[in-house]
Amino acid sequence: MHETHPDVPRIGDVGSPHHAGGTASLQDSATSRAAAQALFVNSNFERAQVLSERALRHDRDDVEALFVRMEVAELEADYATALDAAVQLCEAGAAVPADPRVRLAAVRVREAAANTPEFRQAIPRVQALLENSAQPWPDLHLALLSAAMDGAPGLDPYAVARAAGVLTDWRIVGPIGAQPLLALDQQIISPSEDLAQNFYANRAVENFQFPDGWIRLPNYFGRHGVNYATGRFASLTSGKWRVRVESAGMVEIFIDGERVLRTDAARRREAASVEVVPGPHRVLLKFSTSSAPLRVTVFRDGDPARTPLRAGLSLEEATYLLAAEHYADGDFGDAIRQIDAVRQADTTAALQLLRAQSWTAAAPTSLQAATAWSSLLSEFPAALAADEVVSEHALATGDSPPAINWAERVLKQYPANGQALQALTQASLASKAAVQYDSQLVWNELIAEHPSCSALIDAAAYYGAQGLRTERHAIEQKLDGCAPESLAYAQSLSRDGDHADAAQALRRLLAGAPLNRAARLMLVRELQLAGDDEAAQRAAADWLHIAPNAEEYHRLATASVGAEETAASGAHFYAPYRRDAMAVAREAADGKWHDSVVVLLDDHVAVSRPDGSVSLYIHTATRVAASDSAQAALARVPVGAEILTLRVLHASGTATPIDRTQRSGAEVSPSDTVDAEYVVNFAGDGGIPEHAEVFQFVFGSFDAPVLSARFVALTPTDRAEGGVVIATGDAPQAHTSERNGMLERVWEKQMPAEERSYSATLAIGQAIVRVVEQDHGWSVPSKAERQRRIETIHPGPRPEDS
Questions:
Q1: Closest CA to 451 of 485, 476, 420
Q2: CB 3.0–4.6 Å: which of 133, 410, 577, 672 could bond 420 by disulfide?
Q3: Per-residue b/e over 1-13, b at no fewer than 16 CB within 10 Å?
Q4: pTM of this prediction?
Q5: From CA 323, how far away is CA 11, in angstroms rounded?
C-alpha cells in the first residue's frame, strides 16, 4: 500500500492493482526535490524550471527533475517540451511503470499524440519502449494509434490498434427491444451467442471494422432498445487479462458467455480482470445506441506489485501524485475529489491544473470545467495553458480578440506552437480583427506544424476565399490520405464539381476499407452526379451486402436489382402471379364484412436466383373496419420496400393513391380496402440458407379472416433434386412446374363461400409451408430446428416498433 503523507486523505481505490510495479528505485536528487518544492508548494514556475534543468544536466535520468520539467511545460503551454520530457520520463522509469510519475507521463504522451513534427520524432522512441518492455503500456499504444488516425505516416492504424489490444472487427445487430434500460437487463440474445446467424429479432447482423476501435453506429441504427456486438481476441497462454471499456453510457461485457463488466453510466472508462486459457476468446457487448461511441481494449494484465510514494514528499506533491493515479485510470471524479480534499488545492498552480484537466476530461462543456480554468488563470497569469482554454471558449462564442491575444503571447515564446497557430487561423476565419502576423504565412506554418485533415480543409477554404487558386489546389492535393479512411479528399473534389475523380478516389479508399459505409454512400451520389447511372446502381446494390438494415439504401439498390433482373429474364419474377385487387374487392362485396377487418388476398412470391440473391414479392388487400385498422394494414409495408401499388379502393369502385412518403395522410373509410403491393430485395448472396424466413409462409391469421392466400417459391432447377418441403397444419397441395429455368412451386388456399366467417377461419388453424435448403442439396431440419423456425410468422424486414 502507499506510504502517503499522513495529512493526505486517500480518495477511492488509489493504486488499483492492475498496473505493473517493481522494486527498482527511480533516481532523484536534492536539486530535483527542490525543483518539486518550487513547483508544487510555491508555484514558482521559473525557479522550478531552472532547478529541474540543472538537475538534468547532472543526471539526464533524474525522474523527479523530468517530472517537474514535464508539468511546468504543461502549465506554460510548451507542449513540445512537455512531450519530450514525458517520453524521456517513460524511458527512465521503464523498470517501474507503476510509479505515478511514469504513469502520468504515459498519459501525457497519449494526450500529445498527433501528426506533428514533435510527435513524429518521438514515434521511434515510443516504439522502442514498447518493443523492449515486458509489461503492458496501454497509453503508449493508444498514443501511436491517435497519431496514426491523425495521419502520421508509417503507422497502420489497424496494426497499431491490434497490438494495443483494441478490438477493431465486430458483428453488430440491433437495436432490439423497446427501452435500453429494460432491454439491458433482459437476455434477448444469449451471452454465449456468437451472432453467427444472419438475423436476430428480425434485424440483420452487420459486419463492421473501426480503424481506431471506436464503435460508431451509422445513423440508420435506431435509438431504442439494445445493440449486441461480438468480437474476438486470443491468448497464447493461461493468465490474467485486463478488459477495459471506454463509453458514453452503460455497457455490459461478456467473455466466453460470462459477464465480466457492467459499466456505470456516470463513468467514461472502466476495467476488469479476467482469467483466460490458451486459445481464442469471444467478447459480447450489450449497449444502447446512446452509449456509442465506445471502445473495448483487451490486454495482458501486469504484475500486481506497486511502488509506494516516496518518503519526505510535501503534502501538495503527495496529493498531486495520488490524484494523478486517478487521472491515469480515467477516474476523473476521484481525481477531483482527491484534490479538493486538501485546503491547499486552491493556492497551488499544479493542483489547479490537474483539477481543471480532470473536469475537462469528465465534462468538457460543463460550468465546473470553465470555472476551474478561469480560476487557474486568475490566480496564475503565467499559466498559458489556462489562457489557451479560456481563449478557445471565447473564440467558440464569437469573441476573437482574446484568442488572438493569447496566440500572439504564446508565439512570442514558442513560434511553432500548433495550438496558437490554429487559434490565429480560426480567428482569421471568424472575424476581420487585425493580427500582427501575415495570415497566409500563419496558414503555411500551421500546415507545416500540423497537417491534419481539418487544418487542410480550413486552409483550402481560406485560400479559396482569398482567390489564391494555385495555393488552394496544392492544399487540396494534400487531403489525399490526410487520415485513414478520410473522405476529405473526395469531398473537396466533389465541391469542385469533379465527381468522376471523386468517385475514383472513393473506389481507392474502399479497396482498403470495404466496410466504410460513409464512403459507399458518397460513391453512389458521386456516380449519379457524374452521370454514370449504371455504376451508381451497382454501387447502391453493394449496400445490400454491408448495410441490410439501411432502408434508404435499399431504395437506392432497388433500381439496380430490378434492371438486371428484367434484362436477364425479360420480365419481373412476380409478373405471372399478380392479381387484380379491385376485382377481388368487388367479388367480396357481399355485405358480410362491414363490421370487421378481413384480408381479401395475401400473396407471397419468394425467389432464390442462381447467383444466391433473394427477393420477396408481397401483395395484400385488406378491407378495413375503421381508420385504426387501415393504419395497421399500412404499417405492415416495410420501410424501404420497392412499392408497386399503394392505394385505397373505395366501395364506390374508385381508387385513391397513397403518398408513399406520407402514408398516414390517406383518407380511409370503413369498408374501404387498402391495396399494398411491394417487393423487398434482400442483402447477401447466400440464397435460402441466409434468408430462411423469406421461404416460409403462414396460411391464415389469428388477427383477421383471410379469404385467399397464395405462396410461390421459385428456386433454381439444378438444385431441386431431393427437395423437401416442410408443411404443418392443413397446408394445401403444391403445384410444381418449370418456368424460365426455375422450379415453380405454388400453394394456394381459398376460403369456401359457405365458411366465410371469422370462427371458420380460426377453426382452419395456422397451416405453415417452408422450403429448406442446405449447402449440399435439400434436407429436412431437426425437429427442434423446425419448431424454432415455425415461430417466425411474418417474413422479410418489419417496420420498427413505434
A1: 476
A2: 410
A3: ebebbeebebbbe
A4: 0.69
A5: 9
